[in-house]
Every structure is written in structure tokens, then in C-alpha cells.
Design a protein that fits this description.
Blueprint: H1 2-17, E1 28-35, H2 42-61, H3 64-67, H4 75-79, E2 82-89, E3 97-104, H5 106-115, E4 120-121, E5 127-135, E6 140-141, H6 147-151, E7 162-164, H7 170-178, H8 188-191, E8 199-206, E9 212-221, E10 224-233, H9 239-260, E11 263-264, E12 270-277, H10 284-291, E13 297-305, E14 309-316, H11 320-329, E15 332-337, E16 340-345
Parallel strand pairs: 5-7, 5-8, 12-16
Antiparallel strand pairs: 1-3, 2-3, 4-11, 5-6, 8-9, 9-10, 12-14, 13-14, 15-16
């Protein structure tokens, strides 16, 4: 009878789970603010919000070249992807705004990406520590008189990545001056010593009296060293407008680099067989409630169950290392003992 109760519990848990394990933030787009106008119906406002949310979602998860593949989708097709949306009045009555939050159906989005052979990005570490430096003819501007350092995070509306600039300090100045003849040989982990395990970037903006502006990027994204050169035509831009354009393009480039290191191919899922020992605090219900928060886990299947344990097959997307890290965040430990993976709720 005791085993029968456990079987029923397991079936209930997994039937409820099905293919919709979570409404993870990756598929949510919040704070779409639209102004209420007399000439627009509620349906028109909702359609506008859904279209805007879809554009934001694509910019959040796709590489530039893949966004183009879905640019011609009409509102009817986009609405088919919506799981639900919420509407709330803005507290500022004078603004006369409506706030929309849209959640897209993970399975339908996956099918869309699969049909179009698109990999999408699920970024867990959205921070990058960055130092932009201006290289003038005879001088280097690190903190003072450096437009990019002073304005890097100004005038931005929507940002996927959080750019963190170091506070001015003498140690960084000394290191830069030591390598001023060849800053590309400067080791980023020495420059950002306190954040050596984070995403890092050094941006060198060459300031020369020519029609071409040269930018040199040196970055470490998820422990992979990356170097890139960018060029911009000045084309009679005013200095401030040119600097804004350069700043925007560098941010876009770095964002794309981070996306590229977090790509998930829907067409190549992986499977992991784990054993859950049924003990106090380590039951199936506790595991299920936590695992639903992990979007990369696509589905879970029961292989075997007894009074003492349950064997589970986990279908997941992306790299195993990333799944392990996501499980850790939910206080779930995955451990390989011999040739068997064990899963435990902490």
C-alpha cells in the first residue's frame, strides 16, 4: 500500500510537469509601456504590446543574423506563440499608460527555432567587467577626459548585459602605463584581479586624425580569450554622435560574443540518467518544485521506482556543466559516483 501511494504521487507530480516545466524569465518580457489613446482599441494595444515584446525577446535570445530570419512574422503568427499576457494600469495616472507583461510558450518557441534551424542563447552570467581606454597620439586616457568611461552606461533604455566599469584607482593606472607600448599584451585577469573569474573586456579606442576610427577588443568570455578589431567611418559625424555610435556598436558586439558562448541547439538535446534516493527532505515533490525553475531542462521521465529510490531520465538543452550550475542555484546537487549520477535536494 505504501509503494502504491508513492506510485500515485510520482504519477501526479510528473503528469503535472509534462512539457511545461517552468515559465522561466527567459520567455517572459515585462514592462512594455504603451500610451492609451482614444483612437486605439484594447485589441490594438494588446497587439502592439505583443509585437514589441516579441522583438525584445528575439533581441534577448538570438544572434543578429538569426533575428533577420524571423523579421517577417506577422502579428497573427506571433500571437500563436503567446502563452498569456498581463495588463496593469500605470500608477502614474497623468502618464495614461498601460503596462503589459507577455509570456511566450516555451514549446512553441522551441518548435519555431527548430523549424528555422536557429540556436538561441540562454545567458546566466549577464555581467561583464569592462574598461574602455582612449589612445591618443601621445597620451592615454583611462579615467579622466575619457568620454567612454564617463558615459558608458548613460542614455540606455534596454540592456541585456550589465556592463561594470572599475572605480578609478592607481593600481590600474600603473598597469596600463607599464604596457602602454603594447596594451594588447596586458593580461586581463591581472587588470581585473578581483574579478578574474568573470567576463572581462578591454576596449582600446584609437583616436587619430583620419576618416577611420579603429577599435580593438580584448575579452575573456566564459574563460575563452577573444580578440577583435572594429572600424568605423567618421563620415562627418559630430564627435559626440560618433562616440555614441561607437559605444552602441561595441556594446552590441560584446553582447553578441556573450550570446555566442551560451547558444543552445534545439535539434541536439542531451539526456542524463540520475538516481534520487527517497529520504527525508529529498523527496520527488521537493525535486520537482525546484527543477521547474530551470528552463534548460526540457522534460523528465521516470525509469524505475522503489520504496527507496527513483531513477529519472532528464532531457536537457545546452552543456552539462551549465545544467549542474543551474541545479546548484536551486540547491540541488548532482554527483557522479562510479558510473551512476545521483541527484539530491539540499
Amino acid at each position: 500500500m505504501k509503494l502504491l501511494k508513492k506510485i500515485i504521487l510520482i504519477l501526479i507530480v510528473f503528469l503535472e510537469t509534462g512539457n511545461l516545466l517552468s515559465n522561466d524569465n527567459l520567455f517572459n518580457v515585462n514592462n512594455i509601456l504603451l500610451e492609451k489613446k482614444e483612437n486605439k482599441s484594447n485589441k490594438q494595444l494588446a497587439d502592439q504590446a505583443i509585437k514589441e515584446a516579441f522583438n525584445q525577446f528575439l533581441n534577448k535570445v538570438l544572434m543578429k543574423e538569426d533575428i533577420v530570419k524571423l523579421s517577417n512574422m506577422n502579428i497573427t503568427e506571433i500571437k500563436e506563440l503567446v502563452l498569456y499576457y498581463n495588463v496593469s494600469e500605470n500608477l502614474d495616472l497623468e502618464a495614461n499608460q498601460i503596462n503589459f507583461s507577455v509570456t511566450f510558450d516555451k514549446n512553441k518557441v522551441h518548435n519555431l527555432f527548430y523549424d528555422n534551424e536557429i540556436s538561441y542563447s540562454d545567458i546566466t552570467d549577464k555581467e561583464i567587467f569592462i574598461l574602455p581606454i582612449i589612445l591618443d597620439v601621445n597620451e592615454i586616457f583611462i579615467f579622466s577626459n575619457n568620454y567612454f568611461y564617463e558615459n558608458w552606461n548613460k542614455d540606455e533604455n534596454y540592456q541585456l548585459i550589465e556592463f561594470i566599469l572599475p572605480l578609478e584607482n592607481i593600481e590600474i593606472i600603473q598597469k596600463i602605463n607599464k604596457f602602454r607600448g603594447n596594451l594588447f599584451n596586458l593580461r586581463l585577469k591581472n587588470l581585473f584581479k578581483e574579478y578574474s573569474n568573470k567576463n572581462l573586456a578591454l576596449v582600446l579606442i584609437e583616436n587619430k586624425a583620419s576618416n577611420t576610427q579603429k577599435i580593438y577588443l580584448k575579452a575573456i568570455i566564459q574563460d575563452k580569450a577573444i580578440s577583435k578589431n572594429l572600424t568605423f567611418k567618421k563620415n562627418n559625424f559630430k564627435t559626440e554622435n560618433l562616440n555614441k555610435k561607437i559605444k552602441f556598436e561595441i556594446k552590441e558586439e560584446l553582447t553578441n560574443l556573450i550570446k555566442s558562448r551560451n547558444l543552445i541547439d534545439i535539434r541536439t538535446p542531451s539526456f542524463l540518467n540520475v538516481k534520487l534516493n527517497l529520504e527525508k527532505g529529498n523527496n520527488l515533490s521537493a525535486l520537482d518544485s525546484k527543477i521547474k525553475n530551470i528552463d534548460l531542462i526540457d522534460n523528465i521521465f521516470i525509469q524505475e521506482f522503489t520504496n527507496d529510490y527513483v531513477k529519472i531520465r532528464i532531457k536537457y538543452l545546452g552543456k552539462l556543466e551549465k545544467i549542474i550550475n543551474e541545479l546548484k542555484k536551486e540547491n540541488i546537487r548532482l554527483e557522479l559516483i562510479g558510473d551512476q549520477w545521483f541527484i539530491k535536494v539540499l
